[in-house]
Amino acid sequence: xxxxxxxxxxxxxxxxxxxxxxxxxxxxxxxxxxxxxxxxxxxxxxxxxxxxxxxxxxxxxxxxxxxxxxxxxxxxxxxxxxxxxxxxxxxxxxxxxxxxxxxxxxxxxxxxxxxxxxxxxxxxxxxxxxxxxxxxxxxxxxxxxxxxxxxxxxxxxxxxxxxxxxxxxxxxxxxxxxxxxxxxxxxxxxxxxxxxxxxxxxxxxxxxxxxxxxxxxxxxxxxxxxxxxxxxxxxxxxxxxxxxxxxxxxxxxxxxxxxxxxxxxxxxxxxxxxxxxxxxxxxxxxxxxxxxxxxxxxxxxxxxxxxxxxxxxxxxxxxxxxxxxxxxxxxxxxxxxxxxxxxxxxxxxxxxxxxxxxxxxxxxxxxxxxxxxxxxxxxxxxxxxxxxxxxxxxxxxxxxxxxxxxxxxxxxxxxxxxxxxxxxxxxxxxxxxxxxxxxxxxxxxxxxxxxxxxxxxxxxxxxxxxxxxxxxxxxxxxxxxxxxxxxxxxxxxxxxxxxxx
Amino acid sequence: xxxxxxxxxxxxxxxxxxxxxxxxxxxxxxxxxxxxxxxxxxxxxxxxxxxxxxxxxxxxxxxxxxxxxxxxxxxxxxxxxxxxxxxxxxxxxxxxxxxxxxxxxxxxxxxxxxxxxxxxxxxxxxxxxxxxxxxxxxxxxxxxxxxxxxxxxxxxxxxxxxxxxxxxxxxxxxxxxxxxxxxxxxxxxxxxxxxxxxxxxxxxxxxxxxxxxxxxxxxxxxxxxxxxxxxxxxxxxxxxxxxxxxxxxxxxxxxxxxxxxxxxxxxxxxxxxxxxxxxxxxxxxxxxxxxxxxxxxxxxxxxxxxxxxxxxxxxxxxxxxxxxxxxxxxxxxxxxxxxxxxxxxxxxxxxxxxxxxxxxxxxxxxxxxxxxxxxxxxxxxxxxxxxxxxxxxxxxxxxxxxxxxxxxxxxxxxxxxxxxxxxxxxxxxxxxxxxxxxxxxxxxxxxxxxxxxxxxxxxxxxxxxxxxxxxxxxxxxxxxxxxxxxxxxxxxxxxxxxxxx
Lengths: 501, 501
Known about the structure:
Number of strands of chain A: 3
Helix content of chain A: 55-70%
Largest interface: A-B, 37 and 37 residues
Number of helices of chain A: 23
Shape of chain A: globular
Strand order of the largest sheet of chain A: 1-3-2
Oligomer: homodimer
């Protein structure tokens, strides 16, 4: 046991506890807090953020981390301790370049910005959000400028925050490959997609029944309610206090069957990741999922790869029909499967099918890059947004609420985050391609026994928390780093089979 | 503006934010957290408690508070600042006598004890809770011994924590007066209480309708949902993050009409207090209710003095009948009023009527006193509990779950808290006696306009937060300090009129 590390431990505990409290406030604000609370609560969050900052950025922690990073000390640490020292040293180096008062002001700003955005979206009024967004963009640019390596761009620094080592250079290639394969495929599919009748999806589905069925789905994929919670929020999300307290939200629409069902499978995928982290890592800085991209690979794997397959629904489709006999008794399983996979360009990312989805991400990626390179201003966002939708998806959002205001992310300062969604899809496809060597996925699904799938993911991904990064996990599992080929191949095969054969 | 106070301000903000986070964890644990979360979450709470402790107990804050307490500096402060300095100096003097590691261990212990108690109650197994309770009692005795003035007893020190300046000497007299008046009155009432038929109360009341009606009641008394939240928990309670985020819980029983209705009026009374604190005090150490006793006076005033009166129900009884036509269409308002005031000794405090209620408190007061004076041990609690119930109420709890395990308080370390409930009743009666000079309460109630009542309480009590203590508030309102006469007179008049005329 390293004495030095033991000296560091109380600092780690303080930092963890303060960040945990911020997570709890975040959860509470999204799911419960009354609307007039925010002005005051934001100040409390600002103070706690400043505390969390100081718990890491101080001379004692700095010198302990430096000492622990010296080869002699470092080599004597356990793997977990080494990962903690590496991660915190990186965080510290980044944070100490940001002035404490700016960090605090930014925390207060983003704590309030969510409700400003929500109101602007509700009122379909981009100008009400623009001043706040300008402030956020300005802080994020400043922070990136303070912290980035000289050889990379501001936007690269933001990308690196979300997915270590993935820069615009890689992403440009990655997205070009996707555009090259997906755009022509989508054209072919759209030409025949009026053969898919999914009117059934827009009948009336009573919300109490939806809640009950979604709870069933969560348990079916392996979500553990003794260690998890399900609540409601404007947009579904997953968060957790630790691996014994993992929380997902959902949002229900009476006239849409798919929306809440695929949300719960998606968030459930995120949750299984956090629930599967090894207990030895609990309450440490490496006790959560390793990156946004890998997280999204788990949610997308459950939602799309498993959840939109015929094998997944075979054992439970009758239960679904019995839940909504009026809407579904005449709908055959095969029609339902075609319905939930219908590819159709639309204005809203969260409602997009698997095939058009990456195009929504590409639009955001290109816009964020331009914004951070000062090629466009915040005020130009609505126009540029609509032009890109026209270009890539051939459609025009009918207003800013379903256009540039649709996503919450920017209000939280999350730039460089969207690409993780596409990376996640690609990782999911790559995992899927190799998983077959060890697990008969189709058979598991058809037998209604999803546990071998969860156990495989737990063993190869979940249990490691953030002690391994994306490419380390992928190389160990599949023998190669991220490779977009699997993703475009998966999409091509799936949509060819569904539509073009 | 005092420069010294400005130097103190960031410390105040840190302390406030950390305590606020602990409040949020407390709320979350009671209303939502999954059952297997507690082991880990308790550690986080322990760390944050230690931080909150250190935010106050440190050399810098100590010397600032000392300097600010010097007459020249103190006199230059605003009233609010003076109250903050006085309150924190008192807290600091108390806390710095408790070793930090013991304080932290105690916080972790009580964070877990709630679920241990709940399980023991569910299993009707006192022995499963006893070891934890022994630890809690032992800590509380130690803490009281560290902090108390030499001339007072351990239990006096605990009482003083809950209601400044109210010691066993006063309480013995207070409770003797109550026993003297209430016990003979109760005997007379019980002799005729079989004339009250309240069978209607135990019919079937669908929970969704109860929820809807309780929401109506909350709004009816003036609870503001833009600044408040209503949720569910095992036992109803009120908490708040600040005066723009006040939260109440409720618990619903399908076969009991009264339970949830009077809980929401009770918790609503607590909530109106917190919502009514002046905005100038928000996010400060004096921005909440001043004491448990005054808090309980507000909840009891709404629940009993207003909520169980005929005038309260006159304008809304028809709505209640229409909500549950099967159970209530044949029940006249007069029978309902007698029903909700039926006096009947029972084993459970939270279900007690207004007349037997103080006897439940007296039992707890006497037991706590004995426990803290080492006249009984934790293991003897079930026996002593049952004997006292036999003595004062003439009944025997059928098991420990409805006996000694019924209340959550001791699991949180709250000894010396129960007397506040009786004090609150007495304060409510005293306020009521004087309120008539300014507000025609009966007319307000009969017109369904409760706002003048809330405004009166806001002006004389709520707005002050904890800048005035109980007796200061009472003297300003009624010209005299707490006087139990009003309470026994109120009970005697009310029950004589209902039962004995």
